[in-house]
Structures are given as structure tokens and as C-alpha cells.
Amino acid sequence: MTQFKSAEEAAAAGKYVRTVRSFVKREGRLTKGQAAAIERHWPAMGLSISHGQLDLTEVFGNNNPVTFEIGFGMGHSLVEMASQAPARNFIGVEVHEPGVGACLMAAGQEQVTNLRIYNEDAVEVLKQCIPDQSLDCVQVFFPDPWHKKRHHKRRIIQPEFVELLVAKLTPAGTLHLATDWENYAEHMLEVLTDNSDLRNLSATNDYVPRPQHRPKTKFEQRGERKGHGVWDLIFGKQ
């Protein structure tokens, strides 16, 4: 263990202490277009944990329902959803800066105004910035499956994390997950079913067909051509 009581105390002493995160950062290099998009659009669309807890009405200038997406990748499907649902607000969280840049570039091209972005750890954003019972929908699409059994504990969909998500949902809110790993889908189903504050909205009490509002990603389309399955789960708060 360490002699320091916190990472901040260690830093003050010039020492580094590894902390636990909900992701593994695999940072790529920003393209010129992505860097330009961040410089141009971040002032209007970017959010930071340093802003503290949000007043969502103030952030968006309206009382429209809010969809919160964790790990939007390059952001193309998130921008498409925001473009097609102007009466809904969207907040996306992504730790990888090239993805943030790509998302902002696409958002600028589509001229969406109902989207805000965090380049932060989703767990900390939820804990520090999102009021309880404020999100109409939380969506997590194709999170890292950590397919090796010894790495399953690193999967983001775990009971404690789901409890945090449920606390942020409105009384009629929904949690929408999707994965192309059957083993992870089974794990997701078990975790969500075990949460007494959620009910499965599937007619067969397991998975649902892909809703029209969730666009297919290029990755998903490529996988389907190879015969890979995709599993969507939608649970409502009860």
C-alpha cells in the first residue's frame, strides 16, 4: 500500500499513485480536422466536471427530456440521434479525445444544437455533475467486452454501476444497453434483472429488437455481414 491518504497528497509530495478508473485510455492522435472541430465547437458544446452539478434546463435552455450516452466512440450515431430528435436533449461522454473531435466535427456539419459533450470519466461525471432523477434515458452501446474471463471484473456493467445509473433516471426513465458479445449480453441481462428498481421491457423477458432510434454503426454493419449477433436490452425504472 502507500503512505499517502490520497492521490492529491501523493502528487503534492511529487509521487504518483495509480487510481482506479472505469476505462482504459487508448489515446490516438488528433487529426487536423478533429483538433479544429474541438477548437471551434467546444465553447458551445463542451462540458467539464469542474462546472459541478448541472442545471439541465439552463444548459439546454429548455425542459426537454435528456438522453445520456456513455462511450460514444467517434460519435456518428449519437449525432444522428440528436439530429433526428430535436425535441430531445443529448449528453455524450467519451474519454478518447479523437472521438470527441470526430463527434464535434459531425455535430457541426449537421448543425445540431441539442448535444453536449464531456471528455471525462463517465463515473465521475455521473457522481459529480448529473442530478438524481434527471435523465430520461441512459444508453451504453458496445462497451469494451473484456472477453477474457479473468478480465470480466473490468466490465463497466456491474451491479454498483447500474445502481448509480438507476439513481440518475427519472421515474419513467429507461436504460438501453447493446453489445455484440453474447456472453456480455447474458451478463448484462443478469445484472439488470437482479436490480429490483428495474423491469425488463422485452416481451420475452430478455432482449429486444434494435429500436429504430438506435442507428447501426459501421462496426455493427460489418459484424452482421460476418454473421455476428447484436443484443439490445431495454429496462425501465419501476
UniProtKB/TrEMBL annotation:
Q: Which annotated residues bind S-adenosyl-L-methionine?
A: 69, 94, 121, 144
The UniProt record gives the binding positions of substrate as 148, 180, 217-220
Q: Which controlled-vocabulary keywords does the entry list? A: Methyltransferase, S-adenosyl-L-methionine, Transferase, tRNA processing
Entry keyword annotation includes Cytoplasm: no
Cellular-component GO terms for this entry = tRNA methyltransferase complex
The record's listing under Gene3D superfamilies reads: Vaccinia Virus protein VP39
List its EC numbers: 2.1.1.33
Pathway(s) it belongs to: tRNA modification; N(7)-methylguanine-tRNA biosynthesis
- Which portions of the sequence form the region Disordered? 203-225
What InterPro entries does the record point to? SAM-dependent_MTases_sf (IPR029063), tRNA_(Gua-N-7)_MeTrfase_Trmb (IPR003358), tRNA_methyltr_TrmB_bact (IPR055361)
Please give one Gene Ontology molecular function term for this protein: tRNA (guanine(46)-N7)-methyltransferase activity
Identify which top EC class this enzyme belongs to.
transferase
- Record keyword Isomerase present: no
Catalytic activity of the protein: guanosine(46) in tRNA + S-adenosyl-L-methionine = N(7)-methylguanosine(46) in tRNA + S-adenosyl-L-homocysteine
**Function of the molecule:** Catalyzes the formation of N(7)-methylguanine at position 46 (m7G46) in tRNA.
Q: Which PANTHER family match?
A: 3-DEOXY-D-MANNO-OCTULOSONIC-ACID TRANSFERASE/TRNA GUANINE-N 7 - -METHYLTRANSFERASE, PENTACOTRIPEPTIDE-REPEAT REGION OF PRORP DOMAIN-CONTAINING PROTEIN
Which family, according to UniProt? Answer: Belongs to the class I-like SAM-binding methyltransferase superfamily. TrmB family.
Protein name (Swiss-Prot/TrEMBL): tRNA (guanine-N(7)-)-methyltransferase
- Organism, by scientific name, is Idiomarina aquatica
